[in-house]
Amino acid sequence: MENRRKLLAAAAVGVSAALVLGACSPPEDSGGGGDGSSVTWIVNQAGGGWNHNAPEGGSVYVIQMVHGVLPVTGFYNPEGEWEWNTDLIVNTPELISEDPMVWEYEINPDANWSDGEPIDADDFIWAWKMNSGNEDLCAEICNSRGSDVDLLIDSVEGSDDGKTVTVTIAEGTQFPEWFTFAQDGLYPSHLAEAEGFDLDTPEGMLESSHWFNENPVTVSGGQYIFEGTPALDGRIVKTVNEEYYGDLPEIEEIILEVNTEEGSWVPALTNGEVQGGSPASWSDDVITQLEDAPDVEFGIESGGSWEHLDLNLDNEALSDQALRQGIFAAIDVQNIATRTYGEKYPEVEPRTNHLFSSTSEFHEDVITPTGQGSGDTAAALEGLEEAGYELNGDTLELDGEAVPALRLRYTAGHVAREIIAELIQADLAEIGVTANIETTDDLGGTLAEQDFDLMIYGWSTTPAFASTPYNYWHSESLSNHGKLDNAEVDELVQSAQNVATPAEAAEFANEAAALVAEEAYVLPFVDTPAFYFYDTNYLGNVSDNNAQSRRAQWNQHEWTAVN
């Protein structure tokens, strides 16, 4: 990791991009529990919905927005080790049975939502039903974006007035990361009941899922609570939840500003309009500005997310595996890595596994043997010609018909993806394939609606991986946006979840990844370098955490105001 502390007199590099941030006062000296201290923090993309379990809301941006409002059972620390949220869970949950797998949570008797209603088993039951993938529990599988331990759970039951929660995995199944249940945050089921939704019926559960997606929660089970009406595409104000059952944070107010204009971030920081950020995107220009910015601390390291290209297999042309393989072979991933991140982070290298970075003990190179990502135009054309394609001038044809132009999409304002899109467009032109570049302001919606032919985006990861291949590639997963349907892959990704140890899960996961590579469905690019920054004049005790989506906000309740 590279940590740089800059205390220079030089002014930040000027940028012409418009600044769409509201000014705020810097934090004041704090005595704890809220004394008027305020921090404005950048979130670099809008969210698509308020229910992080749904495809529209299942983004790093929404996870950061609801952080500190929705109570979590536990989290991964920066070292990748699991820690229980001891404010909420007063025992150390352990398996009390291994066949079937059973564990219990003892909820803090004082743990209440800010309206006085208890945080209890009903909230855990709602989370399970939401992500169970079982239409008998939730119609249309609740529009859940994926499933992990929830898919395998047979029952969630409450006792001791709902303050003890017993979770049982279906008999004959296992899950090595059982402890991750509800790690992204519990929703207040009593609010859904107050809206008239019958949570004992599949239809009522589905209605509640949609309702939580459309509406921010008005209560809190964490250190902070939303003030006013937060906007997924604008301004989210979180103030101290005075009814919190644990220690109150020092920073009284955290204002999240959605700002997609990378060029405005550092000027806003040096002008005192924001105090920091840990964006999920990257550009060399921002790093250059940070290097010259006074009183700023920032860090760079290999991140907890990875960039990739997905193909829409429902596109008639892309349903041909040979064309997909030719497209992937033509793309030069090393050039992408160098041109996007190499100047400021020369350690960047092509990613060769969809699930494990090269530093993982479970890493196997499933990409290089296929020739994908090599940028070898001659080899790509050779394979295409063997499959019956012909390069006629500047146009690739099959049976005398030109391969139709493909829509290549990425998130608007994401500088690195803009560069990647232009490089892919040029690479594909070399094999006679036209890629028309389009941006989207709603990544979650675009993916959910399958409104693309080629899509550049990123997946956030955590040290937990057993359910990841299922979420990515199972034919029934709502996160399988390009609609891969491979029975062997389905079997392998289900097996990865149904084992006792991570090592066993990794064997099945790597087998699935090798098949996905053969299918030419997803082409990994790089582990996205991650960076964070903050103004040391105003803010202290900030650190990044690439083991979870919250990044540097992970310990916002421990941030301190500088005199």
UniProtKB/TrEMBL annotation:
Q: Which InterPro entries match?
A: SBP_5, SBP_5_dom
> Is the keyword Signal assigned to this protein?
yes
Domain Solute-binding protein family, first and last residues per copy: 96-476
The record, for Gene3D superfamilies, names: Dipeptide-binding Protein, Domain 3, Periplasmic binding protein-like II
CDD domains the UniProt entry points to:
PBP2_Lpqw
**Highest taxon of source:** Bacteria
Has the keyword Signal been applied to this entry? Answer: yes
* Signal peptide region: 1-22
Q: What is this protein called?
A: ABC transporter family substrate-binding protein
According to its UniProt entry, this protein's organism is: Nocardiopsis codii
